[in-house]
Amino acid sequence: MQLIGMMDSPYVRRVAISLHVLGFEFEHRSISVFGGYDEFARINPVVKAPTFIDSDGTQLIDSTLILDYLDRKVPAAQRLMPEETLERTYALRVTGFALAATEKTVQQVYERALRPAERQHEPWFERVHAQMHAAWGVLDTLVAGRDGWLCAGRITQADITAAVAWRFMQHMLPGSVDAARYPAIAALSARAEALPEFIATPLE
C-alpha cells in the first residue's frame, strides 16, 4: 500500500491516521501537489492528494472514498465507520461538518496565500470565515458532553476527522479561532493528538 501526498493536507492525514488505526502497513510518499507537480503527475495525472495505491495496483483518490474502501478490507467490528444505524448516522453528521470546516479553512488559506492581494475579495473571505465558524459551532454542540470517543465505544472516523480538522485549522490559521469558544471539539482533538497513530503522522 502507498499513500501519496503531504501531511499538511488534512485529507492525506486523515487517511494516514486511519491506516494506522486499522493496522495496515503502508508506504507514505510525501510529494507536494505544488512543488512536486511533475513527479505527482507521473503517479496520478490528476495530481490530487491523497492518492492511494493498493498492493494489487488499485488506485483511488478522494479521502472519503479511500476510507470507505479501507473499511471494507477489515471485519465490521473494526471498521472506522460504525455499522449500527444510530451510531453511523451520528458519525456521518460529525464527519460531514468536520469536512465542511476543513473545506472552509482551505478556502481561506488559498485566498490569502495563493491569490494576489489586489484580487482578493473581502466579502467572500468573510463569508467563508463565517461558514467555518458555523461548522465549528455545530460540531461543538454535537461533541459536547462526550468525554471519551464519540461513538461505538472506540475511536471512529468521526473522532479522527474532527480532530484532524481542528488541528489543521489551528495550524494554518493561527489565532483565528479561540479554542475556548469551542471547548468540546478542542478537547477531543487534544485527546486524539496524544495517540500514537496521530503522533506518527505530524503536520509537515
UniProtKB/TrEMBL annotation:
Against InterPro entries, the record matches this protein to:
Glutathione-S-Trfase_C-like (IPR010987), Glutathione-S-Trfase_C_sf (IPR036282), Glutathione_S-Trfase (IPR040079), Glutathione_S-Trfase_N (IPR004045), Thioredoxin-like_sf (IPR036249)
- Tell me the keywords, alphabetical order: Transferase
Q: In the UniProt record, does the keyword Transferase occur?
A: yes
Q: Which residues form the GST N-terminal domain?
A: 1-78
Boundaries of every GST C-terminal domain copy: 84-204
Q: GO terms for molecular function, please?
A: transferase activity
Any keyword Transferase? Answer: yes
Matching Pfam families, A to Z? GST_C_2, GST_N_3
Q: What is this protein called?
A: Glutathione S-transferase
